[in-house]
Recover the amino acids of this structure.
């Protein structure tokens, strides 16, 4: 167990590699209760929230969710969050644990006069069930739950084993699966029933280590690594969640518009390391003639690729290179550009 | 509970030593492999090189972290566990048998006498939590 943002978090149960494989093969159960949740209520809640976030909220129907960035004036990412349009006048937000306080202050200072804000993180736990067997577990526990008709990035309030859950077809693994927001005092019970039913199908509990490997195999960013107040979404290649024509414009839009016109000075690259050593955060990236052109932001061992994989920022000047060297302690280790995701995505394909 | 076989000697950095005549077989303990998690890479000196007591002699890397290995004794490396370099997961599976790292010709046998016995090491890791 390690302390993380005020929570005691399991890094691993059986081992990072075994858990990562289990999640892709059958499924994984994740206790991610450290994540923060805010409820924003009031008239025109999404239109008001649009002032602060980069994606197009007027496209989000009631019951739908959307990935968004909360940017500062420089276009740097204060946090990456999921916005749920939970009911006509309520937005429910899932935020990163380590940014909970910063985000809260930001929302209060910008929206506090117009909306009713609640930080519901402490009373809300979050359990993710991910992998090919995830849906069958929920269907077994709640056969009439309509799980199969819940599309990717949609959510609904429902009852699971007599426990009220806000169930969302989202995740951080690239597998099909669900994230279940549940009252904290009921989370232990829900975890037990999910695990018991899940184990019969090969689902294993997964710790933070596997969570990190799974998200890295997909190339998903993690705030504090690929995103930060000094890194813009465009640098991280996440343009798809930045809409420069929102009404109203969001904070940071001008900086991002300028950066889009001029082109970001750094680009996030996915790398496969041609060595057994893991390229870790902070390790230098160089061209083949050893000119330093960037730094690794995240690295792990990918069971799927059977090699270390990494993400890192590279200067624009070296942006077209396909081969790099990474300084691993005292050695230069070769790495080559990889396409993302490292592992094919198996998230739910929405049915009309 | 991590296994701590009798008959071996132990360091505070969680290496074990088996002394047979003047040859010390060296590895890392069950407690160490459990703390490290999945080991993905091991770097060891070559045969014929010398290592010095308490000096780093190699690196063990897991998904979670990179750690130096510290020599429990001084001496000349007589043999390296080559299969281990290709299959570092052996350290997780069998830290005391297939997961051994080096055989070293010990220069000064008193190096080994300084090390903890199983009972002491057990107490030591209990303190470490």
């Amino acid at each position: 167990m390690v302390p993380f943002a005020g929570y005691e978090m399991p890094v691993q149960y059986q081992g990072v590699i075994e858990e990562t494989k289990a999640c892709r093969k059958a499924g994984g159960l994740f206790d991610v209760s450290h994540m923060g949740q805010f409820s924003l209520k009031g008239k025109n809640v999404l239109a008001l929230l649009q002032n602060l976030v980069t994606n197009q909220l007027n496209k989000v129907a009631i019951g739908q969710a959307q990935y968004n960035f909360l940017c500062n004036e420089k276009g740097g990412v204060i946090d990456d969050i999921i916005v749920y349009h939970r009911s006509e006048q309520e937005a429910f937000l899932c935020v990163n644990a380590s940014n909970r306080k910063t985000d809260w202050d930001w929302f209060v200072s910008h929206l506090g006069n117009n909306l009713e804000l609640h930080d519901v993180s402490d009373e809300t736990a979050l359990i993710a069930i991910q992998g090919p067997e995830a849906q069958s577990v929920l269907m077994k526990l709640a056969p009439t739950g309509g799980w199969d008709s819940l599309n990717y990035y949609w959510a609904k309030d429902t009852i699971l084993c007599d426990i009220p859950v806000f169930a969302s077809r989202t995740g951080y693994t690239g597998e099909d699966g669900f994230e279940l927001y549940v009252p904290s005092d009921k989370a232990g019970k829900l975890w037990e029933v999910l695990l018991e039913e899940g184990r019969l199908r090969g689902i294993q509990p997964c710790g933070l280590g596997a969570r990190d490997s799974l998200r890295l195999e997909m190339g998903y960013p993690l705030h504090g690594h690929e995103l930060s107040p000094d890194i813009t979404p465009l640098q991280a290649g996440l343009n798809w969640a930045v809409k420069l024509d929102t009404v109203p414009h969001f904070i940071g839009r001008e900086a991002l518009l300028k950066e889009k016109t001029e082109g970001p000075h750094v680009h996030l690259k996915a790398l496969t390391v041609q060595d057994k050593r893991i390229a870790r955060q902070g390790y230098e990236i160089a061209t083949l003639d050893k000119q330093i052109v960037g730094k690794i932001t995240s690295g792990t061992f990918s069971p799927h690729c059977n090699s270390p994989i990494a993400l890192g920022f590279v200067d624009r000047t070296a942006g077209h290179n396909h081969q790099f060297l990474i300084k691993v302690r005292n050695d230069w280790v070769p790495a080559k550009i990889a396409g993302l995701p490292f592992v094919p995505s198996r998230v739910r394909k929405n049915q009309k | 509970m991590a296994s701590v076989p009798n008959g071996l000697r132990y360091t505070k950095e969680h290496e074990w030593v088996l002394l047979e005549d003047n040859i010390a077989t060296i590895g890392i303990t069950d407690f160490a492999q459990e703390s490290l998690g999945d080991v993905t890479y091991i770097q060891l000196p070559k045969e014929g090189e010398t290592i010095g007591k308490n000096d780093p002699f190699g690196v063990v890397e897991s998904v979670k972290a990179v750690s130096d290995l510290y020599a429990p004794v001084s001496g000349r490396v007589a043999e390296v566990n080559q299969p281990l370099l290709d299959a570092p997961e052996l350290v997780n599976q069998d830290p005391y048998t297939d997961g051994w790292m080096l055989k070293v010709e010990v220069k000064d046998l008193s190096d080994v006498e300084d090390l903890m016995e199983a009972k002491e090491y057990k107490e030591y890791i209990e303190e470490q939590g």
